[in-house]
Amino acid sequence: MKKLLTVMLIVLLAVTAFVSCSKKDSATTTTSADTSKSAAYADTKTVAVGAVVIVRDDVPEDEVYAIVKTIFDNKDAITAQHAKGAELDLAFASSVTAVPYHPGAAKYFAEKGYNVASVKDGAGKGTAKALSFGTGGDTGTYYGFGSVLAGYITKNSSYSVTAVTSGGSKANIEDLSANDVQLGFVQSDVMSYAYNGERLFTSPVKGFSVVAALYMEQVQIVTTRDDIASGADLMGKSVSIGAIGSGVYFNALDVLDAYGLNEGDIKAVYQSFGDSADSLKDGKIDAAFIVAGAPTTAITDLATAKTVYLVSIDDTHADKLIKASPFYSKYTIPAGTYGSK
After folding, report:
1. Rounded Cα gap, residues 326 and 88, in angstroms
2. In sequence order, what DSSP letters do the residues of 224-240 get, joined into one string?
3. Range list of β-strands (E), the chain
4. Residue 77: CB atoms within 10 Å
5. CATH superfamily of 29-47+219-333
6. Tell me: the pLDDT tens digits for 276-319?
7. Which alpha helices (H) appear in 135-244, and where do they start and end?
8. What would the pLDDT profile of 128-185 be if each residue is shown by its tens digit?
9. How far, in Å, CA of 183 to CA of 105, rounded?
10. Which pTM does this prediction carry?
11. How far apart are CA 310 and CA 313, in angstroms?
């Protein structure tokens, strides 16, 4: 009898050890506020800003009209190439109020029954040409979705658009002003800062207008540590907050401020999405701010190698953010967005 009990105890211990090791080795994505459950059982509350396409004022009206028409008349075909296509919506696309629309875009939306808040006077009078489209880093949603849009426009209209990698919102506005690109992805808040000469910009940048708002991009606080469950837990931690002066940088500062923290309260690191993911993977940083449409390639790739946690921004702190800046809105990233079991 003693021998039988001994054998049963050994088997039980072996099974327990096997299950424990299996859990440690499995790479998953979960919500840091509920570390006992995988992302299949918990959503992530956060805030989001709009992802907007802008264009130089001197791009002709007919060319911008054709670009907008090609995108929105072919939503299903574009969605088959990239999931963000499913978020294309005429009401949202025509809803921007901070900056006037290009006449070509306004014409298309009016034909569909949507009148924009304002139209840029004098825009749309240039000569048609091949356009470069400033997006973002090659592991971000701007570049992934922008490449699909550029390719589809080129193949299905009489105009040519080429997506190029860039430093993101602020860089795209600067490159557009220099005519290095003619189209660009921008965060809605950064776009307003540029147009009004605020925060990121020492003087107003006026030579661009809106093509369309395409989707919402979420403020994603990513970590591989299960002890970081809120913004307050970033105190004293090594945190990537984007390139200095980038949209991500200011989003990060806004979130920190909502939790009573500032840049000096963390060990700030200034990295791109891809570099942030690599640093998290190698254990060089504790957390990173990634502002992009979810799912974001950098996080998806990281989740195949490490257990990744998304830190929620609760309603109280989200309300503080929205009160301080009207460009934010509440958003929930659905459980399982990054392919968790």
Report:
1. 22
2. S-TT--SGGGGTTSEEE
3. 29-31, 44-56, 131-134, 161-164, 183-187, 208-223, 238-240, 267-269, 287-292, 308-311, 329-333
4. 12
5. Periplasmic binding protein-like II (3.40.190.10)
6. 999 999 999 999 999 988 888 889 899 888 989 999 999 999 99
7. 141-156, 169-177, 188-196
8. 999 999 999 888 899 999 999 999 999 999 999 999 999 889 999 999 999 999 999 9
9. 13
10. 0.83
11. 10
Fold equal for 29-47+219-333 and 50-215:
yes
pLDDT digits (tens, 9 = 90+) for 141-157: 999 999 999 999 999 99
Does CATH place domain 50-215 in 3.40.190? yes
Q: What was the pLDDT predicted at 101?
A: 98
Residue 17 token pair: 């050890």
CA-nearest of 262, 252, 333, 325 to 291 is: 252
- Domain locations along the chain: 29-47+219-333, 50-215
Q: Are 244 and 320 in contact (CB under 8 A)?
A: no
Share of the chain above pLDDT 90, in %: 74
